[in-house]
User: Fold this.
Amino acid sequence: MADKYFELVNSGFTATLAKKLGLPRPARLRRWDASADLVPGPLLVLGSSAHGQQLSDTLMSWGVDVRRNDAGSAKLGGIILLLDELEHPEQLSPLMLRAGKALRQLLPGGRVVSISRPALATDAPAVAAVRQGIDGALRSLGRELRGGAIANGILLSGPAQADSPSVLSAMHFFLSGRSAYVDGQFVQVSGHEGELPQSFAKPLEGKVVVVTGAARGIGAAIAKTMARDGAKLIVVDMPAASDALSKVANQVSGTALQLDVTATDAGERIIEHARSRYGTLDLVIHNAGITRDKLLANMDAARWDSVIAVNIASQLRMNEQLLAAGLPGLRVVSLASTSGIAGNRGQTNYAASKGGVIGMVRASAADFAAKGGTINAVAPGFIETEMTAKIPLGTRTVARMVLPSLMQGGLPLDVAEAIGFLAWDASAGINGQTLRVCGQSLVGA
Ligand code: NAD
Assistant:
């Protein structure tokens, strides 16, 4: 986030002044750097879990200095909380209190990751209580962190264990700089399948990826991030955006497809393009989206219908065509929004479409799994784009203050990183989920 306020409170004598005045000072977030260590210091693992030792072994194979249960007074790059064996809320105390003390040793950009289980209606009440309690505790813990540190959780479901490939992929994502703007979130792993990448620098090596709405904004950032991670790109946008689209295609050494995603044959045209140029299709990212904001009392049919048509109806139709094509192992990631979770004044149409995306991925998971694939969504919050840069500085600064622990908006790159992680082979056990990339915004659940 390079803007005047951020620079002023973080550099030179104005930083000292801002500190003395008690002004909010957003930290520089730790983002992905393939040449950097996974975490900025030793990792303290607290608690126990079946396969916890295998998890520690894998962490060590990633070059992490793992300390089981005791790190002395060392500064810490992260803390892992193994909580999946707890059966009563009273058992939380010793682990959470030890974690609390260790938080004082957490370095800037540090990470807290919990492993627990989802609370189910079929659980014994005490078991469900502790499991749901972990959800509340971890989100609260995240709000207490400073210096760009974040806290997230992994939920083990069905056959998933602490060393399942998708648990390890989620662990790598949450520990790394890729998750810089994901805070207070849980990812549920419900399968044991998947394979870790040969190199986490190129986790999408050779994958053929389609990104819709890729001529600018978040879509262009997704295309560039996927290319950085080894993918071959097909970038899609409206014919009217053809110049910008060609530029992005050149930047990522990919091919451009001019296409309105609301066309009834949009899915078929994407498949045809991918097959003719690359022989296959591995991943589709439904990013194209529009807003036509108006209070519902003043809403007209054109505004409502166009948002539904672009943001959700087109995706439902394209998914049917993608499934019918029988592409083995196809992955889909769709763009939702925190507006679709929490609601937003003036956005009933947009929130209906983005809530729709969340419902769509949940209900489509089984169909994609039947073909060896997955479908998930990412819900961005306040993302710093050309659009938000036009908001007056004062209003923008206030908007960021509702992001209490990170105190800044995210970048398009942060959204792209989360999408990439959900597309890794190793994330095969994560399906039907919506991952928020929102800096634990107060807006939303
Ligand atoms: P943007 O307006 O900058 O870019 C959207 C792109 O989609 C444009 O290039 C546009 O030409 C293309 N597009 C629109 N309609 C299309 C159609 N019918 N067919 C093909 N392409 C079409 O938007 P953005 O801010 O980059 O947002 C990208 C996605 O992220 C959207 O789905 C948006 O709803 C979602 N999102 C954005 C934010 C944010 O803060 N920017 C927050 C939450 C969700």
